[in-house]
Amino acid sequence: MGNAFRYVPRVAIFLAGIAAGALTSSRRAARGGLDTETGNDLKRSLADLEKRLAAQESASANRLGHIETRLDEHAARLADVPSTTQIVAAMEQLLSKTMASLDERLSTQAHSIDVLKTTVSQTDSLLERVLESLDSLQTSPSARSIGLGPAPFFPTTV
Question: Are 38 and 29 in contact (CB under 8 A)?
């Protein structure tokens, strides 16, 4: 696109040269050098060339305007995109919250396991005392006299 605009001054100088040539040729024609038909053809081709140049400039201006509009749109979109530091900070914050939550859950589970161990230990101790009490009752003579001793064996019939 930049190359096209670089050639515009050269084309304008070229057109000025053609116009000067046309004026010079019309003077020669008046003196008898060129006929008017050739001069008119030259003027028509010059006018046609100027029209094509104007159309090319218009098309180039339209393209440039379209490109500038798209650049502005892309710049606006790019401004909305978070930077790498913002993304990294957000990820660090999310990771920090996740790790804190995980630590909290692990601490709660460890506490629950300790409570369970204590409960199982207390239950074992209590069961052991109950069994010892039952054993002591079975072996004591007073328990046998009141019928708390071991049950007699009665065979069952099938």
Answer: yes
pLDDT per residue as tens digits for the range 42-75: 889 888 989 999 999 999 999 999 999 999 999 9
Closest to 42 measured CA to CA, from 63, 60, 61, 19: 19
Work out the number of other CB atoms within 10 angstroms of the CB of residue 34. 16
The helices-and-strands tally (H runs, E runs) of the chain is 4, 0
Residue 137, both tokens: 């009752």
Q: What are phi and psi of 78, to 5 degrees?
A: -65, -35
Is this model's pTM higher than 0.85 or not?
no
- Alpha carbons within 13 angstroms on the beta-carbon side of residue 25 total 16
Distances (CA, A) of 129 to 126, 144, 150: 5, 21, 19
Q: How many CB atoms lie within 10 A of CB 13?
A: 10
Q: Report pLDDT for 72.
A: 95
Closest C-alpha to 44, from 24, 70, 66, 18: 18
Tell me the two tokens of residue 56: 């090319």
